[in-house]
Amino acid sequence: MLPHIPLQEVSEVVARGVNYLVSLTESYPYLSYAGGAVFAAIVTQWLAERRRNPRGLPYPPGPRGLPFIGAFYEIPETKPWAAYKEWSKKYGNLIFYKAMGQNYLIVQGVKEVNDLFEQRSAIYSDRPPQPMAADLLGWKFNLGWQPYGPWWRRHRKAFHEHFNPNVIQKYDPVQNRELYRLLGKLLREPARFTDHIHNLFATIIMKVTYGITISDDDKDPWMTTIFESLQSIAKAGIPGLYLVDHIPILKYIPSWFPGAEFKREAERGKKVTDRLVMKPYEAVKESLRKGDAEPSVVAALISDLPAENDPTRAEEETIAANIGAVAYIAGADTTVSAILACLLGLAMNLDAQRKAQAEIDEYVGPSRLPNASDRPSLPYVDAIILETMRWHQVAPFGTPQLNVKGCFSEVNTETGLAIIFTAIAHMTSEDDEYDGYFIPKGTTVIGNAWSILHDEALFENPSDFNPDRYYNNPRTLKPDVTFGYGRRACPGRFFSDRNMFAMISAILAVFDILPPLDERGKPMKLELNPTDGLQS
Ligand code: HEM
């Protein structure tokens, strides 16, 4: 039985639509058919939604914007994580708006995050579709971009097997060797510390994933492949830039079709993506065949593949190749950003630095460097890592960045921002009701980790870098949300955390981290000024 829909509501919608159409067709008479079709589609959608929400529950509060385009012009362009925190004073911890036909829900607040992403994870774990980037350019190789379902689950399981907390210590030897090289480089060229740290983590992840050694310079062929692929995705990932993202059926038109330039562009991009995924994978396969492969995640995945004649072999092989590529793409610059933020925090808080160094001197002593297994004896360094992840969100919107060093700044920083935004946001896979509100299926759901971790009610002076808050009070809220939510929470976080601890404790054991000097030789005043990209 159809639910009762108040006549007044229907007539208001119809009247608004008719007014709009009349004004449009007066100026552009040929638009009347197209306008009629769009209007019919909108009314149909509206009626369908009323059927799915028979009690007529309202959406959560938020700006309602203008007809058709919704709140498009109200979406904050700069530092959206901070802007939405401001909005929460007016709308609360759940903010809902529509923009260009898409529903958005911003979730801020520990309770709301837990209730939706964790307790209802079965319906809050999908990703918004991206026909151009994910399907046509082939970025659905990346489990972070895959829709929630069996294919994603198989990738996630394979990834977890090699990056879960019980196995990651086997990567310590690679990590320690590279770490010692880093210390040497920092001693020789301290001013190039960002380059050294970027190179260090790229080296570790390529070695762990493929057993491949990359060179120190920017011309390394493996890095070039990654760079090219990120350049190709930079434009394709902008939500809504391509018509095919609005009308997905267009992805089936042939590339020779007049006007189908996007298909030709996608074909070029797909070749680059295939190189990114397959080139290092084939190199490992070849090394295994020759018997000179170094131990690595991909070597282990290949060795575990079913027999050649097994019907699941082809799929398992695709998963193995995809896992290798995603480890680098999702992992490299995220950890680097966190380490750089930590060094900044330490340079701003010399007292914290002294406390950590005293702890290292006492428990580790001068005859060796600390490493990841010293963690239980170094609670102050542990507090520094926790405080770093709270203080500075690498991905304040639960959206890690995907670029290699400098990639998006050469392509377009804003572009990078857009890709990441849609790629890693969650999406509801069912209609839901929460706290008296209706949340439709297909809503893009974004957790605002920054707003939670800078909540004055939970953290005194949240913008200060102050590891004492964790050291003195272990019950202080841990910064877990910085790694995302529910079933999609970052599966690389244990690996990243272990690397970070090893690096920061080793750096603190041998160096002081001080602010640069100004032209008069005085230490410069430092401040945290996160960039506007979703990775800061
Ligand atoms: C400081 C370091 C890192 C931060 C802050 C971070 C943060 C995140 C966040 C916020 C997400 C999205 C979670 C969600 O959708 O709710 C994510 C996803 C992901 N991260 Fe990380 N990450 C880091 C390091 C790494 C590393 C080192 C790796 C790989 C070795 C990695 C692999 C992934 C993958 C594969 C996903 C997609 C998960 C999925 O969609 O199921 N991350 N990360």
Can you describe this structure?
The protein has 536 residues and is mainly alpha-helical. The strands form two sheets. A four-stranded mixed β-sheet has the order 1-2-6-3, with helices on one face. The chain is 53% helix and 4% strand. A hairpin with a 2-residue loop joins strand 4 and strand 5 (437-439). Residues 1-7, 398-423 and 532-536 have low confidence and may be disordered. The protein is built from 20 helices and six strands. The protein has a single domain (53-509), classed as Cytochrome P450 (Cytochrome p450, Orthogonal Bundle), CATH 1.10.630. Bound molecules: protoporphyrin IX containing FE. The site of protoporphyrin IX containing FE has 30 residues, from helix 6, helix 13 and helix 20. Pathway: Secondary metabolite biosynthesis. GO terms for molecular function: heme binding; iron ion binding; monooxygenase activity; oxidoreductase activity, acting on paired donors, with incorporation or reduction of molecular oxygen. Keywords: Heme, Iron, Metal-binding, Monooxygenase, Oxidoreductase.
Which structural class matches the secondary elements? mainly alpha
Give the distance, in angstroms, between the N- and C-terminal Cα atoms: 52 Å
Output the number of helix runs: 20
The geometry reads as: globular
Major pleated sheet: 4 strands, mixed
- CATH homologous superfamily (4th level) name: Cytochrome P450
User: Which distinct ligands sit in these coordinates?
Assistant: protoporphyrin IX containing FE
CATH topology: Cytochrome p450
CATH class designation? Mainly Alpha
Tally of structural domains: 1
| Helix/strand order, N-terminal first | HHHEEHHHHHHHHHHHHHHEEEEHHH
- The unreliable regions are 1-7, 398-423, 532-536
- Portion of residues in beta strands equals under 5%
Q: What would you say the CATH architecture is?
A: Orthogonal Bundle
Count the beta strands.
Answer: 6
Q: What is the residue-mean pLDDT, rounded to a whole number?
A: 85
Helix content: 40-55%
Strand arrangement within the widest β-sheet reads 1-2-6-3
Radius of gyration: 25 Å
